[in-house]
Structure formats: structure tokens, C-alpha cells
Amino acid sequence: MKRIITLCLTAFVVLILNAPFALAQETEAETGAEPRYVSNSLLINMRAGEGTKYKILARLRSGTPLEIISVNQKDGYTKVKTESGKVGYVLSRQLMDEPRTCVNPPLTEATLAQLENLSNNQIRSRFVQLTTDYTKLQERYQAATDEKNKLTQELAGIHQTASNAINIAKERTELRKQVTDLTRQLADLQQVKRDYENSHNQRWFIIGAAVLLLGILFGFILPRLSFGRRQDSGWGEL
Fold it and tell me: For the whole prediction, is pTM greater than 0.85?
């Protein structure tokens, strides 16, 4: 019996201690409180419970007035009631104190109407289509990335070729300079050769002229010497 009484007292104490937390997690709305409005989003989901696992009861447009029933500050959900009397849960951050001042353009309104009229099968079909498009975009992005890498490699090759061309041009300029120097040296050597040949020819010309002159002299002198000897010998005989 004492054990049962102890358990009851313990449970009562636990309930008293947890009461503030329960009040903090879910605060009842005051009677006559100002309504809240759907934030400036295209559509928000009103679900049957607090969490995405619960069924979507309605899709509320931006600016829709809602009556606040309770607020769960811990999980971030607010229990609301629509003007038509439908009760459900929405995310607290998707509510605002004042209604929106802007009006959706016609295209947005038409898009909202289309979204509201879509069935679950149509939504799944659209999701599959979007997934397929996303996959194609990824493939195109990968192809573009591969093409970019290929062009980068080709550009690096072009830079290398240009660098080689610059080096070849420098080497060609250096070779031309060397050829010019060698041509000048060859011209100098040819001039030296011509000068040597001219001086050599002049030397032989002088030698030839000297030999010719000596021959002429001997041609004049030797006969006279022979004639003089003959006369001397003739006068002696007489």
C-alpha cells in the first residue's frame, strides 16, 4: 500500500514539474486575438498534424487569414482554422501579423491555379519530368566541364607551341647574326687572298722583268766582248 502511495505521489510531482514545459510548448490562443495571415509565399501546406509525414489538408495562398488555435513553440508549428472552418497545422514561420500588400501578377495567379488543380498523379509526373530535366542538365554540365577541360589543355598546348615558336625565332635571329659574321669574315679572307695573289703576281712580274732585262743586257754585252777579242787577235797577227 505504501508503495502504491509513493508511486502516486511521484507521478503527481512529475506532472507538476512538466506542466510549465507543456504550457511553453503549446500556448492556447486568447479569445478574440487578432488573426494571422499566410506569409508572402506562393503556397503553404496545411497538414493534419505537426510534421511533413502528415497528410496535406489544403494549400493556402499568401495573405489567407487564419484563426490561431494554439502554438507549439518547440516544434515550430501552429494549429490554425481557416474561414471555411478547416482545422490543421502550418509552420509558424510561414505566418505574419499583417496581410500582404502586393498582388500576385496574372502569371503567378495562373500558376497557382494550375498547381491547385493538379492531382497527385500529375504532380508525380511533373516531378519525374523535372528529375529527368535535372539529369539532362547535369549531363550537359558535365559535358560542358569536359569541353572546358579539353579547351584548357589545348590552350596550354598552344601556349607551349607559341613559346617554342618564340624560342625558334630567337634561335633563327642568332643564326642569322652568326651567318652575317661568317659572311663578313669570309669576305675579309677573300680580300686577303686577292691581295696576296696580287702581291705574288707582282713579285713574279718583277722577277720576270729582271730576268728579261738581264737577258737583254747579256745579249748586248756578250757579242761585243766576243767581237773585241776577235779584233785583238787579228791585229796581233798582222
Answer: no
